[in-house]
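Hey team,

Filing this mostly as a record. A colleague (T.K.) asked me to run one chain through the structure pipeline before their review meeting, and I want the input and output archived in the tracker in case anyone asks later how it was produced. No errors, nothing strange. Just documentation.

Input sequence:
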Amino acid sequence: MSKDTSSNNVAAPPPPLDLARWRMLPVRLVAVGAVISVIGALVDLKGFGYAWLLSFMFFLSLGLGGLFLVLVHHLFDAGWSVATRRFCEHLATLLFPWMAILFIPIALLAPQLFAWMGPEEGASASHIHALHAKLPLFTWAGFYLVSAACFGLWWLLSDRLKHWSLKQDETGSAECTFKMRMHSCWGIWVFAFTLTFGAILWMKALQHQWFSTMYGVYYFAGSVWLTLATVYVITMILDRQRVLSVVLHEHQYYFLGTLLFAFTVFYAYVTFSQYFIIWNANMPEETFWYVVREKGTWFYVGLVIIFGKFFIPFLALLRIDVKSNFGVMVLIAAWAWVMHFVDMSFNILPVYYPNGFPFHMVWLPLGIMALMGGLLAMVFLKKFASAAPFPQKDPRLVEAMGLYHPVPTQISGGELDQTDDMPDATVQPKRSH
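Output structure:
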């Protein structure tokens, strides 16, 4: 008996997006951003350094978030994330060499950006004690060696995962799957340590006297939150361009939206826990970090983060149907980019602008963002064009496509047999949006 599909009532897919007018956008961003960056460096070299660090930590979040999504895909043997795995691998490979190259200005300007790297003549007792308690990490050798180790390990991990992923496309061998699982097994530990060291050395160390045992988790939560929003939009664009349509199913969008909702709550939990523990302990060497960020307009920036990075996306993502509504989710993703920029500003810029958000200099970090974003976008598009858009021979590919093999229902001769009138596989159609 054949299956009647006339009742599925599947609407026609939406027309492809017209991306021709956006083709030169990355090049234009690089050109404009380069000019603004040069002007900013000539006007105020130290201010340029903090703006560069802000943009660097923002885009580092995307690379680390992409690496994390690839790792958990293999660790949990997920099926729904097969369709998005390949471009998450491309995001992860941006960590080396591109993010390492973008780190060079930070490495050169580090003695000006980090007070603890300057001369200690006349330093207070608390300053010396804070450095002594963090030895040998907070030394010149420690800073550069640990930084190099972070980029080296990120390169090793992302390169091996992508290598075996592309080899899986060629051979379909089970060895490739096992190798990626093996690298993910040790890689998740390395990822946790290197992300924590990077967040501490490059951002928290701007005010080295401060103590926080949750800062690495805080940066991790915000990074994955930003990456999930970005992955949702990339998936939607590739779906509309008919690049991923064959392997996408309704549940991919729902799961991405649900994870975005989960990390919205997780980020709020970690951020509030860090604040509450420090407030409850009431120790000056911890509370001063928040006291500085209550001066001037920084207090209102903090309120923007509370409402903009938690309450607004939390309430917007509560409804189940919103997670599959492209119009709403694109707005949420754009909002996530703005809020993560504000969050990174709240962490970095008060060191140089203690009296409030530098609205008069906002053109500089935005220009550097354009430079880095345009450059990384060009690299990402080149990487995406160099390989198949999704894993071709992943063992979970059929599941990702929404194909399900029916369970045998008859027993004949001691073996389970499938009924004659049952099709070999059934497919759940993907609704159009």
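Quick notes for T.K.: The two ends are 32 Å apart (CA to CA). The longest strand covers residues 410-412.
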